């Protein structure tokens, strides 16, 4: 089945609640490749977990410093800004700054293999062990972005080593169905058809919108000296700010 066909079918899955997605009450470890992926892909889920007092930790994998080429916001300042935005986004979802851990890997060059990959996976595994996590989440392996794929591979590695449940969430993977979000992508044939849950987040959608808006560098013209810098398009936000989120169970 092609990714396009799968996503179109998944949009018609029945809406389900948190209990269907995470029937166990164990801690959750969520990997976000960049500051904003946590809100775009999982804002509703994070708000639900926070409201129910569930243990969750969010790991920011990259420093986010490659979204703009700006003299006003050189890489170090941009990375600091984006981390501040992410903390504000998590606060909008009901999570304190103690829930956030940053790895600081280079935006646009998160390693997919080799020593850097192994070191990052080891750090993530250590966090999972410390928290007693039972579930790890990462972007879908069909998200067309190298950092997303690297983050997915880290999650898969840790899940396999520690016997964790592995869930994937699409962010840019929705481009297979909605190319207008950014640009068309090459057709992808899925090796297997995933199972999963279409999570009802209608009640949490206002909080998710607030979390996404907290990423001002990605949603406004805040960084005015780089008009060509990345900004989320209305078309992308229309897809990513729906009253449900999609999660795929890809447990090894």
List keywords for this structure.
Rossmann fold, globular, GlcNAc_PI_deacetylase-related, 8-stranded mixed beta sheet, 252 residues, alpha/beta
Structure description:
- One of its GO terms (molecular function) is hydrolase activity, acting on carbon-nitrogen (but not peptide) bonds, in linear amides.
- It contains nine helices and eight strands.
- It is α/β, with parallel strands linked by helices and 252 residues long.
- The protein has a single domain, classed as LmbE-like (Rossmann fold).
- The chain has an eight-stranded mixed β-sheet, sandwiched between helices.
- Helix 3 crosses helix 7 (205-214).
- The two termini are 20 Å apart.
Care to give the gist of this entry?
This protein is of the alpha/beta class.
Chain-wise SSE layout:
Layout: H1 3-10, E1 15-16, H2 18-21, E2 28-32, H3 37-51, E3 56-62, H4 75-92, E4 100-105, H5 114-131, E5 135-139, H6 146-162, E6 165-169, E7 195-200, H7 205-214, H8 216-219, H9 234-240, E8 244-249
Parallel strand pairs: 1-7, 2-3, 2-5, 3-4, 5-6
Antiparallel strand pairs: 6-8, 7-8
Helix pairs in contact: 3-4, 3-7, 4-7, 5-6
């Amino acid at each position: 089945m092609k990714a396009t066909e799968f996503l179109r079918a998944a949009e018609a899955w029945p809406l389900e609640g948190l209990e269907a997605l995470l029937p166990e009450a164990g801690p959750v470890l969520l990997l976000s490749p960049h500051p904003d992926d946590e809100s775009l892909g999982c804002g509703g889920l994070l708000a639900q977990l926070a409201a129910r007092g569930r243990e969750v930790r969010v790991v920011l994998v990259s420093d986010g410093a490659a979204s703009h080429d700006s003299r006003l916001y050189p890489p170090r300042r941009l990375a600091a800004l984006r981390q501040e935005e992410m903390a504000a986004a998590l606060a909008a979802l009901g999570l304190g700054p103690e829930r956030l851990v940053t790895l600081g890997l280079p935006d646009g060059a998160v390693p997919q293999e080799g020593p850097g990959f192994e070191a990052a996976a080891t750090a993530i595994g250590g966090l999972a062990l410390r928290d007693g996590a039972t579930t790890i989440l990462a972007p879908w392996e069909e998200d067309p972005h190298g950092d997303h794929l690297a983050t997915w591979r880290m999650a898969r590695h840790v899940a396999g080593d520690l016997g964790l449940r592995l869930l994937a969430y699409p962010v840019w993977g929705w481009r297979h169905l909605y190319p207008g979000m950014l640009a068309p992508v090459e057709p992808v044939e899925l090796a297997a058809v995933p199972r999963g849950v279409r999570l009802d987040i209608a009640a949490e959608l206002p909080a998710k919108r607030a979390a996404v808006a907290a990423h001002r560098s990605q949603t406004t013209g805040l960084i005015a000296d780089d008009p060509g810098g990345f900004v989320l398009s209305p078309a992308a936000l229309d897809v990513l700010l729906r009253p449900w989120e999609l999660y795929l169970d890809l447990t090894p």
